[in-house]
Design a protein that fits this description.
Layout (H helix, E strand, L loop, with lengths): L1 H13 L4 H16 L2 H4 L18 H26 L9 H14 L4 H24 L5 H26 L3 H55 L6 H8 L21 H12 L5 H9 L1
Length: 286
C-alpha cells in the first residue's frame, strides 16, 4: 500500500504543465485583475460574522478617536486645575487644588531648598485665602480649621526638609526655622485681629438692623393703635426707663382754661380773705 502511494506521489511530482496551459492560466489571471473581480466579489470568511451589538464598529475607526479623546481629556483636566487655583477653603474645587494641583507642583520640585520655598509660599497662600474669606464674610469655624490644618501640614513638611539640609549646613536651618516661626506667628496675629474687627462690625450691623426693625414696627403700631405702648417703648421699659403713654395720662391731669364765672368767684374770694397776723401787727404799729 505504501509503495502505491509513493509511486502516485512521484508521478504527480513528475507531471508538469505544458506551455499552452501556462499561457491560458496567465491570460485568465490578467483578465480577472483588469475586471477587479476580487473587489466586486470579495471573499468572505465563514468564521467572521457581524455582531448585532457592535454594528458599524471597527477597531480602525476607534484607533482614530483615541488621540482626539486624549486631547479633550487633557484640555478638560487643565481647565479644572486652572479653575481650582482661585478656590477657597470650603469650596468644591479646593480638594482638587490641594490633592492634585499642588501634588503635581511637588513632583516637579526636586531640591530641598526649592521645596522649602514652595511650602513657604503655600503657607502664605493659606493665610491670604483666610483673608479673602473674611472680606467676603464667608469665614466659618470649619473653613478656618481647614486652613489651619493645611498650614500645620506644610510646616511639618518644611521641618522634614530642614532635617535633610541640617546634615550639610546646620546654621542655615536655624535661620529658616526662626524666619518661619516669626512669619507664621505674625500672620496669625493679623488674622486674629481681622476676625475680631469683622465680628465687632457684624454685631454693630445686627444691632442697627434690630433698631431699624423696631422703628418700623413702632411706626406701624402707632398708625394702628396709638394709645397702646409701641415695641420701642417696651424695649426701653425693659432697660429700666419708663416712657409715659397716652393711657397713663389722666383727664384730671390735663390743665384747662378757667371760665369768666370761675374767675369772678376766685377774685371775690380773694378780697374777703381775712388779714393774717403779720398784717395786723403792721396796722398796730402805724
Amino acid at each position: 500500500m505504501e509503495k502505491k502511494l509513493n509511486n502516485i506521489i512521484n508521478e504527480m511530482k513528475k507531471s508538469r504543465m505544458t506551455a499552452v496551459e501556462n499561457a491560458r492560466l496567465k491570460l485568465r489571471i490578467m483578465t480577472s485583475l483588469e475586471k477587479d473581480v476580487f473587489k466586486e466579489t470579495p471573499i468572505i470568511s465563514p468564521f467572521i460574522q457581524k455582531s448585532p451589538y457592535f454594528f458599524g464598529f471597527s477597531f480602525h475607526s476607534f484607533s482614530k478617536l483615541i488621540p482626539i479623546t486624549v486631547i479633550v481629556l487633557v484640555i478638560a483636566i487643565g481647565g479644572v486645575l486652572h479653575a481650582s487655583s482661585d478656590s477657597l477653603p470650603g469650596d468644591t474645587l479646593y480638594t482638587i487644588k490641594i490633592n492634585i494641583k499642588e501634588k503635581i507642583e511637588e513632583k516637579l520640585t526636586f531640591t530641598p531648598e526649592k521645596k522649602i520655598a514652595l511650602r513657604q509660599k503655600r503657607i502664605e497662600d493659606r493665610f491670604t485665602e483666610v483673608e479673602k474669606l473674611i472680606k467676603e464674610k464667608r469665614i466659618t469655624p470649619k473653613n478656618l480649621s481647614i486652613a489651619q490644618s493645611e498650614i500645620e501640614l506644610e510646616r511639618a513638611k518644611i521641618e522634614l526638609e530642614i532635617e535633610e539640609i541640617n546634615k550639610e549646613n546646620p546654621t542655615i536651618t536655624e535661620e529658616i526655622k526662626t524666619e518661619l516661626d516669626s512669619s507664621i506667628n505674625l500672620r496669625k496675629e493679623q488674622i486674629d485681629t481681622q476676625i475680631k474687627e469683622e465680628s465687632e462690625i457684624e454685631s454693630i450691623e445686627k444691632e442697627l438692623a434690630n433698631l431699624e426693625s423696631l422703628l418700623q414696627e413702632e411706626i406701624k403700631f402707632g398708625e394702628d393703635t396709638p394709645s397702646a405702648p409701641s415695641p420701642l417703648q417696651e424695649e426701653v421699659n425693659k432697660e429700666g426707663q419708663k416712657i409715659p403713654t397716652e393711657g397713663d395720662i389722666k383727664e384730671n391731669d390735663i390743665p384747662t382754661t378757667p371760665t369768666k364765672e370761675e374767675a369772678n368767684t376766685d377774685s371775690s374770694s380773694s378780697e374777703t380773705v381775712p388779714p393774717t397776723s403779720s398784717t395786723s401787727l403792721l396796722d398796730t404799729e402805724i
